[in-house]
Sequence to fold (277 residues):
Amino acid sequence: MAADERNEAGGLRGVLYEVIFGSDTRAGRVFDAALMAAIVASVLVVMLDSVQGVHGRFGGVLVGLEWFFTILFTVEYVLRLWCVRNRRGYALSFFGLVDFLAFAPTYAGLFVPGVRYVLVIRLLRVLRIFRVFKLAKWVGEAEAIGVALAASRRRIFVFLFFVLTMVVIIGSAMYLIEGPANGFTSIPASVYWAIVTLTTVGYGDISPQTAFGQFLASMVMILGYSIIAVPTGIVTVELGRGERKAAAGRRLCGGCGRGGHDADAAYCKWCGGSLEA
Fold:
């Protein structure tokens, strides 16, 4: 827990703080899981509402659900502000700003139509899931590609989740910029375009027509080259780490003949003898 978020123990504020900001208790974990489910559901509602066919049939239901999630996240944000001691510090922090943006566009949409589709930024709030797994440790040694992939699965998952979040935000931005008139008929269609462009596949079935849209597309294309290299780098690092550990484990002490030493070890961990040749 951040020092500027800590609150005095005891009382209703203390209990709420442990539930809302903590992840070490059962109540905290249940709250995090419920919050993540609500976030994902609310993002799906916004995306489905942008599809004309779905909006025509279920528009009223989707609007009602959107306001339900908006009120839910508003209450949650107010409770977070009430629980923390340094309210200004939380409100201006990364997660504080994301929490605020999770509901603010809906209210802004009452005055500026179309702004509420920016609510897909709620997906960033799922980053709080890493608090639940903050005690997870990397275990095992990587001596082969299969083991290296297994050891890299968490970082690859984080990377893929980041890419998924990014294409949703980029797709939503392009939907607002280009709109149905230029082929971006819905947020899912725009997300499809973002995935095709980011992966440098480029089918060309949808393309931006405005200058601002083409500029954004250019940035996404350039970003795609760096994105592709990330998974390879993650696995390569694990392969190299596994090889160093394996080599260290094969170093035998001349005195006792035992191995299993660290890569930078100069003396035997068992008898204290020198490992230098």
Observations:
- Residues 12 and 83 are 9 Å apart (CA to CA).
- The chain has a mean pLDDT of 75.
